[in-house]
Specification:
Layout: E1 10-11, E2 16-17, H1 22-34, H2 37-56, H3 65-73, H4 94-107, H5 120-131, H6 136-139, H7 144-158, H8 169-178, H9 184-198, H10 207-215, H11 218-231, H12 233-244
Antiparallel strand pairs: 1-2
Helix pairs in contact: 1-3, 2-3, 2-7, 3-5, 3-7, 4-5, 5-7, 9-10, 10-11
């Protein structure tokens, strides 16, 4: 289960010590408030994996651990549940909602005394890292923190099969034992299919739409398929070119 106190456990095999600062502890509490236990554990595992990658991959060694931890802890705030859904937009991708919530959280006056040393650059790193965490082909070419957030989240889905080849079986087992998956595998499709129903226009051009096509059923599926076909990137671009022909 998710640890009941804000102190992060030490992982001796993985040689990971998640930074326990007033700000990271507050971010963990905030994530628990907005998202499910399964999502929180996913974020904690992703933090551990990101820190392992930062230690093992020299190009990312300069990443600030606190900034990295905050970005990974809050990367799925866009999955806010129940009453917390009121904090989400109706027209933005969940990654952008999460990035906005994280930036607002760090800048909130109530925790400003915990955020010493946080300038616009660090805030922008957190925003970019969360907004781009599902777009590794872009994140990989950004700053180390941004790249590591994407790599760390991916590691929770690939484990020892991570494309960098840096997560050992023993490290993987330790991280998952410390922060169990709970019902994450069952919850993930429900969350993403929910986005396809609640705000489909934000899912047509990205991976969330794939979950919609695979997981929705009946009338919801047919409605979504029609919307995706009409509003997919290829349809929009080619349709736009055709519409412009009258001016050429």
């Amino acid at each position: 289960m998710v640890p009941s106190n804000p102190t992060f456990p030490h992982l001796p095999i993985s040689r990971v010590a998640i930074p326990s600062t007033p700000l990271t502890n507050a971010a963990l509490a905030y994530s628990r408030k907005l998202t499910s236990p399964s999502t929180v554990n996913h974020c904690l595992r992703s933090v551990a994996f990101a820190l392992i990658l930062a230690r093992k991959l020299p190009p990312y060694a300069s990443a600030d651990p606190e900034t990295l931890t905050l970005a990974v802890l809050m990367h799925d705030l866009g999955w806010a549940q129940d009453a917390s859904k009121s904090l989400l937009s109706t027209d933005k991708r969940f990654e952008v909602d999460g990035a906005n919530l994280a930036r607002d959280f760090i800048g909130n006056a109530e925790i400003a005394n915990h955020a010493s040393g946080w300038d616009e650059h660090r805030l922008q790193l957190v925003w970019d890292a969360i907004a781009l965490h599902t777009t590794p082909s872009i994140a990989a070419h950004k700053q180390p923190v941004v790249a590591l957030v994407s790599l760390g989240v991916l590691a929770d889905f690939t484990g020892p099969n991570h494309p960098t080849g840096t997560i050992s079986v023993d490290e993987y087992k330790e991280v998952v034992a410390t922060f169990p998956r709970l019902d994450f595998r069952e919850e993930l499709p429900k969350i993403l299919c929910g986005l396809c129903v609640d705000k489909p226009q934000t899912t047509y051009d990205n991976f969330v739409g794939d979950f919609g096509l695979a997981g929705l059923q009946g009338a919801e599926l047919e409605t979504f398929k029609a919307g995706k076909e009409k509003n997919g990137t290829a349809a929009l671009l080619l349709g736009g070119l055709q519409a412009c022909e009258q001016y050429e």
